Structure prediction request, 359 residues.
Amino acid sequence: MLAARGAQILAQWTTQVSGSLHPEAMPHPQLVDHLPAFLEEIAQALRDREGPDGSRVAAEHGEQRLGLGFSLDGVVREYGALRDAILAVAKTERVSVREWEHDVLFDCTITGIAAAVSEYQRQRDAELQRHMNEHFAFIAHELRNPLGSALAALSMLERKQVLDMSERFAQVLHRGLTRMHELIDSTLRTAQLATAIQLQREPTRLAALLEDMEMSAAASAEERHVSLTFETAEDVTLDVDQRLVRSALTNLVRNAVKFSHAGGAVVVRARSTDEHVVIEVEDSCGGLPPGMVQQAFAPFAQLGSDRSGFGLGLAIAKQAADAHQGVIRVQDLPGKGCIFALELPIAARLEEAASAKPH
Prediction:
């Protein structure tokens, strides 16, 4: 009966779960997905007269249901509904079900539930762990930026003999900053990149963002003997999350300074249209390695031979751009350097888009 009435059983099952266990708009092929193969597993178990030890099909089904947003309760109830559908079709077709067949069907149902739930939970726990690691990676990376500026400034004060590093308090300051840097680096080595962002928008002047960029990168640029200049046409107001955009721009400038050769130049240009502001950061890195244009913004991607960083800066910048419905891109200038461009909608466009939404 399972072989001959498989389509009838799935139709009965679909009727039972419709509107209760799955979104009504879900396509039928996606809904039934692994069930025909699971029916074959049940048929084989009946031929063998014993329930299976496990179910690869059910495990794959559990993973798929997690991806589709099913609840764990819904996954469990699907298998109970399938068993009921099999028995209902057997009754309709006047197929007698012997006691041992009931037992095998029950064993298959329990095994299917166990396999599906186990894989569902395993995948869900892995996803939660990944998000937690990503969250800590971002916190650590954002702490690392201002700390790096503090260490660079301390080094400059020492070289200019403004600060005597033989003094006890200066040594305590240096050790404390260095230790914090090591702890943050250790955190980053064991963390992943996050993707989820909750925006806290507020009106923000472009000029203020650029001033922050200059202040945060000035010490590093001077230390590496790289000139840092800013070219802006006019000031505009953006409706953005200041923290995220400031972080994105700071990471772009820091990377440009870091990878530019001594005596090179980093130029920051900003221009605006009626709808967008574009901020370009051009460096003197000599150009990107082959194949890096495509993966420049991937988490933990290293653009150069200097492995002192973790490859999170550009990924954070891309995350900020995506969250604001903006764009970030890179143009390779072989033998010279590269240009990273961050494009963001300005406040006027965002306000118009918000007012156009139905209330």
The chain has three domains: 6-129, 133-189, 202-356. The longest strand covers residues 337-345. Residues 99-159 form the longest helix (61 residues). The two ends are 54 Å apart (CA to CA).
